[in-house]
Design goal:
globular, 13-stranded antiparallel beta sheet, alpha+beta, 6-stranded mixed beta sheet, 3 domains, Cytochrome Bc1 Complex, Chain A, domain 1, outer membrane lipoprotein receptor (LolB), chain A, 21 helices, 27 strands
Length: 687
Amino acid sequence: MKRRLLLLVFSAAVVCAQPLPSYNQLKFPPLRQVQPPEVATYTLPNGMRLYLLEDHELPLVGGFALIRTGNLFDPPGKVGLAEVTGAVLRTGGTSSKTGDELDLALENIAASVESSIGESSGQVSFSALRENTHQVLAVFKEVLTAPEFRQEKIDLVKMQLRSAISRRNDEAQEIASREFGEIVYGKDTPYGWRIEYATLDRIQRQDLVEFHRRYFFPANVMLAVYGDFAVAEMKAALEKLFGDWNSQQPPAPPFPPVRSEPHPGVFLATKSDVNQTVFQIGHLGGLLRDSNYPALESLASILGGGFSSRLFKRIRTQLGYAYGIGASWGAGYNQPGLFQISGSTKSESTAETIRVVREEIDKIRSAEVSEQELKTAKDTVLNGFIFNFDSPSKTLSRLVRYEYHGYPKDFIFQYQKAIARVTRADVLRVAKQYLQPQDFTIVAVGNPKDFKTPLSALGLRVQPIDLTIPAPGSEPAQGRRLLERAQQAVGGAGKLAAIKDFTALAEVHIQSPGGAMKARQTNRWIAPAHFRQDTELPFGKLATYFDGSQGWISGPQGAGPMTGAVLQQAGLEMFRLLFPLLLSDRDPARTLQAFAENALEISDQRAHAVRLWLHPQTGLPLKQTYQSPGEPPSQVEDVYDEWMEVNGIRAPKRIRINRGGAPFGETRIQDLKLNSGLKVEDLSKRP
C-alpha cells in the first residue's frame, strides 16, 4: 500500500514538473454553425404581418408589434411628440381600464405590456405565462389599437421630460454625445432636433390621438410572437383577435435622408466643475448594407476596440493621458451612423490627447495593420456571433427587423462570411477612403482654464457651444429679440411695415423626376393676405390665387377651387413669405420661440410653422426650414443668397431649395418692385 502511494506521488510530481503550454498553443475545435429556427410568416386579411416562432423550453409566451413610425416624423414645432405618444400609449390606459388598473391586473398574473417610440420605429411588447396568453393578448391588442391617452398621464410624461431637460448638462459625457450627434447630423434636421420646454408645451392630447391614428394601422404593423404555443392555433387566435381592426391610412412616408455635409472644427463646451475633459471626434459613418462595412468595423476595432487597440495602448498605456478611449464605426439600417472616437483625459492633456488621436488616424491610413491585429479584430466579431441567436426573442427580433428595414433574411450570415474575408489591404483601403481627418468634428467638454495647451494650438477654429437651457417661458422673449435682429438687418421694422405690396419676377429651375425644368414666375402680394402666382411652364401656364382662407387654381387641365393639400400648401406659402414673416411679432395669432443661438421658430394657430435661421454675424436670414403638406410630407429648406437692396429693403436675389435633404430647385429674382399700387381685383381676376 505504501509503495503504491509513493508511485502515485512520484507520478504526480513528474506531471507537475512538465511545463504548461502557452495560451497560443491551445487548440480549440471550430464553432458549430448556427442554425436559426424556422419562423412561420403570414399576412392577415387586414394587412398586418405575422411572424410566429414556437419554443417549448419554458411555459412562456412573448411578442412585440413593430410599427413604422418614429421621432423623425415629429412636427418641427412639437419635437417630443413621438416619445410622449410612445410612453402614454401604455400608461394612459384604454377605454376599459386606466393605466394604473392595467398595471395591477398584469402584475397579478406576472405579465407585462409595454410601449415606446424611438427614432425610426415604434414598439408595443408583451410577455405572459402560457396559461394567461389570451388574456394578456387582449390587453396588448387594446393598447395597440385603442389607447385612451388620459391627460394626467400626458402631464406626467411631460413633467418627466422637463426634468430631464433641466438636468441635461449635469454629465459631461452626456453633453459630448448629444452635441457631437447634433452637430454632425445638423441641428436643423430631424436627426439633430432637441426637445425643449417650448416644444413640450405645444404638445396636446389631440396631437397624440392624431399621431396614433396616422401610423398605427394594420398594414403598418409587423407582429412577432414567440414561445410555448402551436403555430396553427396562435395564427387562428390572432386572426380572430385582430379581425375587427380595419383602419386604413396611406403608407408611412420614407424617413428623411441624412445630409452628408461635414462640420469640421473644434467645438468647446465649457464646464467649470470638472477636472477632466470628455471628447468625441469623428464624422458620419455608414450603413450596415455597405459592402465595406465589415472592413470598416475591423478597422474601428483595431483602432480603438479594446485593451489591445492602438488608441488604448498609445494614449492610456504608454502616455497615460486618457482614462478611457475607444473607436467605433457606427452603421444604421437605412441612415448613416456615426464614426466616433470617444474618451476622457486629464484637463491639462486635452489638446495633446486630441493631437495624438489624429496621429494614430494618420498612421492607420498610411500603412497596413499587422496580421495579428486583424486576426484579433475578426475573432472578436466571429466568436461572439453565436450570441446573436442565444434566445428565441433575439432570433425573432433580428429577423423581423431585417425585414422591417428591407434587408435579406440571411443578412447576418452574409455579414459573417464578409468579416472572414477581410484582408489587411482592405483595412488600409477603407481607412484611406472613409476616414477623412479634414472633416472631423471635435467636441470637447471641460474646463479650458485647466488646459495646459489651448485647443487653438491644434490649428483649427475653436467654436464655443452654448449650454444655456432656455428657461420655461423665456423662448418667446428670445424669439422676439432674434426677429428684431433680422428686421434690423434687412432695413428695419418700420420700412418692412411700410410695404403694402410687392411684385417679384423670377426664373425658376426645378429638378423634377423627369429631369430639369425651367419656368418663369410672377409673384404678387398685397397686405395683409392676398397672393397670386403666375407661372409659365413648358407645358402651359398655371395661375393660383389665395386670399388667406380660400383660393383657386387655373392651369392646362382646367380651373377650380383650391382644396385639400393644395389649399394647405397655399396657406403655408402665404405664411412664410419673407417680408410679412419678419413682422410676425406684430401678429397676435403668431408665436415666436427661440430654439437655437441664432434660430427661431414662428408658428400660428393654423399649425403653420417655419424655422428661420440667421447669420451669426450679420443677422440676415440664412434659410427657412419647414415641412411641406401632402403625402408623403417632406422637410424643405429654402437657403437665401446674393442679397440686393430695393427702396432701403434688403432681399435675397437667389433662393436655393432643398427637399428631403437633396437639391430640388432654385429661384432667381430678376426684378423686385415694392409699393407699386397693386389692386386686389387685379390679383383675384381669373385668366
